[in-house]
Design goal:
mainly alpha; rod-shaped
Length: 146
């Protein structure tokens, strides 16, 4: 009886072993397919990260270029502001002798006095004398050649 039991339980053990082996093989195949799918997804994610890195580098380079252009434009704006201020100051300083020369001529000053006191050239002093030292009708006729 003891030997009969061993032979009767042996097919059940083989069937149990075969079932466990089948489950193990199916599990391994499923795991291999899952690993392949996950590996493909990982490759796609790595490619996406590489592309994002390249885009980021391009944006950084572009931002650096924009920053240089903005700095250059700011410098140009400051330079233009300084130049405009200088020109306005020169114009104000340059206008003062003529305004003062006109007032002196209207009070009867000579061309020599304008040259000496205001630093005008002889031609400038004579022109101020011509335009502001006589009546407007007389100046118009002198300019017209009459």
């Amino acid at each position: 009886m003891g030997t009969d039991m061993w032979w009767t339980t042996m097919p059940e053990v083989w069937m149990l072993t075969a079932a466990i082996s089948l489950v193990a093989v199916v599990s391994l195949l499923s795991l291999a397919m899952t690993i392949r799918v996950q590996s493909r997804k990982l490759s796609e994610l790595r490619e996406g990260i590489r592309a994002l890195g390249a885009d980021f580098n391009a944006l950084c380079s572009g931002a650096a270029g924009v920053d240089r252009r903005i700095s250059r434009l700011e410098r140009q704006g400051l330079d233009l502001g300084h130049r405009q201020e200088t020109l306005e100051n020169q114009r104000q300083v340059g206008d003062m002798p003529y305004g003062e020369a006109i007032q002196l001529v209207q009070k009867g000053a000579s061309a020599e006095r304008l040259v000496e006191e205001l630093g005008l050239s002889q031609g400038e002093a004579e022109l101020v004398m011509l335009l502001h030292g006589m009546k407007k009708e007389d100046a118009a006729s002198v300019l017209a050649g009459g």
